[in-house]
Design a protein that fits this description.
mainly alpha, binds fe (iii) ion, 331 residues, binds manganese (II) ion
C-alpha cells in the first residue's frame, strides 16, 4: 500500500488505517472548529471609523493583509479540491483534505465578514491580487509553481511525475500556506497586541491555528511520498526545492515591506523580514532540508499565539470549544 499510485488502494475503505497521522490531523482540525461570526467586531468597527485610533501605516497594513488573504484562501481551496484530491487516493488523507477544504471555506467566509463589518469596498479588496504588485507576485509564483498538477492530463505515474507532484505540494503547502501567510499573521497579531483591531486579530489567530495544521498535514504528505519513492529525492531536486523556498522568502520580504514600510509601534519593518527567514528555516527542517538563514525568532510570542488560542477562549467562555468538546457526551 502507498500514498499515491497504489493499485491496491480502495478509496472507500478507510479502515484499517494506513496513515494514522492523517486521521490525527483530521481530529485536531475538528477539535479546533470555529466560525468568524462568533467573534465580535464592534470595537474594530469603531476603531476603523474613527480617524484617531489607527495611523495610516496601520490602515495600510490591515488593507494589504485583507487584500492578500481574501483571494489567497480561495486559491488554496481550489488547489486542494481540484488538484491534490484527485491524486491522493488514500482514504484517510482524503478525509483530511475534505476537512481542510471546509476550513478554507471558513477562512473565505472570515474575509467576507471582515469586509462587511468594516464597510470596505469589495471591489478594492478583492482586486488587490491584481492591482498590488507585491501581492500579485506571490500569487503568480504559486500558480506558476503548481502548473503540472493542474494539467488535466497529469498523472503521478513514474518517478519524474512523482517528483513533479512533490514539487507542487511544496508550492501549495510549504510556500503558500507555510510562508506566504506568515508575514501577514505576524503583522495582524502585532497590531492585536497593541489592542488595535482585536476582532480581526483574533480571527487571524484562529486562521493561523488552522494553517499550522494544514502545514503539518502537508509536510507529512510530502515526507511520506518521498519515503515511499526515494528515487525522487535526489540532490538536484533537494537544491531545487531550497532555491524555490529562498525565492519565496524574497517575495514575502518584498510583500512585508510594502504592507508595512515604516514598521508599527515598537516593531521595525525589518523584523518582519527576519521573521520570514526564521519561519523558512523551520519549514526547511520540517521536510528534512538544510536550514538557510539561521535567523533567531524576533517574535517568540507568535508561537504562543498558536498554542494558547484555544485555552484562552475556554476561559473567556466562548462557546466554540464547549460545543465541540461536549458534542459526544450524551449521558
Ligand atoms: Fe486557509
Ligand atoms: Mn489552509
Amino acid at each position: 500500500m502507498s500514498l499515491i499510485n497504489s493499485s491496491r488502494t480502495d478509496p472507500n475503505k478507510i479502515l484499517p488505517l494506513t496513515y494514522p497521522w492523517a486521521r490525527r490531523h483530521y481530529k485536531d482540525g475538528v477539535a479546533n472548529n470555529w466560525t468568524p461570526d462568533e467573534i465580535p467586531m464592534q470595537d474594530d468597527i469603531e476603531q476603523w471609523k474613527s480617524d484617531k485610533a489607527l495611523s495610516d501605516t496601520e490602515r495600510r497594513l490591515v488593507k494589504w493583509n485583507l487584500g492578500f488573504f481574501s483571494t489567497a484562501e480561495s486559491l488554496t481551496a481550489n488547489n486542494i479540491v481540484l488538484a491534490v484530491y484527485s491524486h491522493v487516493t488514500n482514504p484517510e488523507c482524503r478525509q483530511y483534505l475534505l476537512r481542510q477544504a471546509y476550513e478554507e471555506a471558513v477562512h473565505t467566509d472570515t474575509f467576507i465578514y471582515c469586509c462587511d463589518s468594516l464597510g470596505l469596498d469589495p471591489e478594492e479588496i478583492y482586486t488587490m491580487y491584481n492591482t498590488i504588485p507585491s501581492i500579485r507576485e506571490k500569487d503568480a509564483y504559486v500558480v506558476d509553481l503548481t502548473r503540472s498538477v493542474f494539467d488535466r492530463n497529469f498523472t503521478t505515474e513514474g518517478d519524474a511525475n512523482v517528483q513533479k507532484f512533490v514539487h507542487d505540494l511544496i508550492g501549495y503547502y510549504v510556500i503558500m500556506e507555510g510562508l506566504f501567510f506568515y508575514a501577514g499573521f505576524a503583522m495582524m497579531l502585532a497590531l492585536k497586541r497593541q489592542h488595535k483591531m482585536v476582532g480581526i486579530g483574533e480571527q487571524f489567530e484562529y486562521i493561523m491555528r488552522d494553517e499550522s495544521l494544514h502545514l503539518a498535514f502537508g509536510c507529512d504528505l510530502i515526507n511520506t511520498i518521498r519515503r515511499e519513492n526515494p528515487a525522487v529525492w535526489t540532490d538536484a531536486f533537494k537544491s531545487e526545492a531550497v532555491e524555490l523556498i529562498k525565492k519565496a522568502v524574497d517575495l514575502e520580504k518584498i510583500y512585508a515591506r510594502d504592507a508595512c514600510p515604516e514598521g508599527i509601534l515598537g516593531i521595525n519593518a525589518s523584523k518582519f523580514a527576519e521573521y520570514v527567514e526564521y519561519i523558512a528555516d523551520r519549514r526547511l527542517e520540517r521536510i528534512e532540508l538544510p536550514k538557510v538563514y539561521h535567523t533567531e525568532n524576533p517574535f517568540p510570542w507568535m508561537s504562543q499565539s498558536v498554542d494558547l488560542a484555544k485555552e484562552k477562549n475556554f476561559f473567556e467562555t466562548r462557546v466554540t470549544e464547549y460545543q465541540t468538546g461536549g458534542s459526544l457526551e450524551w449521558d
